[in-house]
Design goal:
This protein has 90 residues and is mainly β. The protein has no helices and five strands. A five-stranded antiparallel β-sheet has the order 4-3-2-1-5, with no helix packed on it. The chain is globular and about 40 Å long.
Length: 90
């Protein structure tokens, strides 16, 4: 994930690409939307030596163009690209 959380402020337009490596292939999916919230939350899973003995995950809430709210877990296979929308003047 090359983008920092400072760049992921509410209202920022982003494209998220996530890859899931398989034995013989890689599954890739992308979604585009506007950041609503960035947070780090703990799961119900226990993980040794983690903060408060819980596994903490980076989560990104984005609103897709069709209005759907999508909550994404960010991991090393996630690419976050900030989309610079250029206003066109006619």
């Amino acid at each position: 994930m090359g983008t920092t959380s400072d760049q992921l402020q509410p209202g920022t337009r982003v494209r998220i690409t996530h890859q899931i490596p398989q034995r013989d292939e890689v599954w890739t999916t992308s979604v585009t939307g506007t950041v609503e919230k960035v947070e780090q939350t703990k799961t119900g899973s226990w993980y040794a030596h983690a903060k408060h003995d819980k596994l903490w995950l980076d989560r990104l809430h984005i609103r897709a163009d069709d209005g759907e709210l999508i909550i994404l877990h960010l991991d090393p296979y996630t690419r976050v690209d900030v989309i610079d929308e250029v206003a066109t003047g006619d």
